[in-house]
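Section 5.1 Outputs to date
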Amino acid sequence: MAQLVGLIVSEDEAFKKHIERLLRSGAIPVSVIDDRLPREGTPPDLVIVDTRGDASSAMSNIERLRARAQGAGIFAVALTTDPDLILQSMRAGANEFFTWPPAEEAFHGAVRRTAGRRETTQGAGPVATTLVFFGAKGGAGTTTVSVNCGVELSRLSKRSIVIVDLKPGLGEVALFLGVRPRYSLLDAIDNLHRLDREFLRELVIKHKSGLEILAGSDQFDRPGAADGGAIEELFRLLARQYEYILVDAGSQINSCTVAALYTADTMFLVANPDVPSVRNAQRLLDRVRQLGACGERVRVLLNRAAEPYPIPPKQIEGALGHPIHHTFPSDYKTVSAALNSGVPLALTGNSDIAAQFDRFTRRILDPTAEAPSAQPARRVRPALERLASLW
């Protein structure tokens, strides 16, 4: 499911914040703009109109927005369920009507209906899926997982796929793939006004697997706090041109990674089976919930897992309150050789870890595919006692 673009029409900041929280917390990712239509004249998918004040002005807003965004779902929000106001809203072009504050279940149901209509009207055209990889700590293997997933997706699906290196200064996606980019993410966000298909083709570099790369910045302070809005806009533009968008988001929470998390169809949290990683993963899951990003979109990946486990997988699941979606084995020699040579695991020959990336990626392409069998848990009391003492 591709992310939706939502526009909030109101002069009330409290209204905007409440509606934005509702949009962010649903199972379907929504990229929120509150003061303008998206660039290049592309209409929004969702418009929420505050009709609690001047009804005449609100109806004019709905009519104007319906004319500019004919396929959008328009939600009218009023103080009461006045039958005359409901009728006026529907005649002006609203699809849904809510009283303030909207009930969350009903509101999210309306968003799902809008997304369903959008899928139907798009027909067989490409629908972007955004996958964000986020590390529980530095060195968890986030770049390794995201890069190899991207190569496998390209190999197995033959679809249009781009991987975005979001880490400032120390991004390693291009290095891991053995390519030397001329341009970076900064060239894209500093030129959003001209980021059409042709210009983007100049900024990305294509790997021999077919995966396209938007390389990381070489500046340590960018992308920074001021670039969050531009990053979200970039993802909206990429969604028009690719079927899959992968993001190596690193392990730091900032405005840019938050923008990525909000746009994600699936957030993969990469953790290792050790106390610091599990502790951080638990805190990051709490932070995702605090930000309003839907927890249903989070998948936990256990990387560098080998028996005897410092902490058994079942205990990790209990500590996180979240199931482990996939486990990658520990194989330092194979991974290190692949990284040093700039050749992804999928292209280096047969290995257990390459087979796991194949299985993991096939589950992304077909979520109904059978999950890999769980590894047997072993009890290691000292690590568990230390982990428990940290909460």
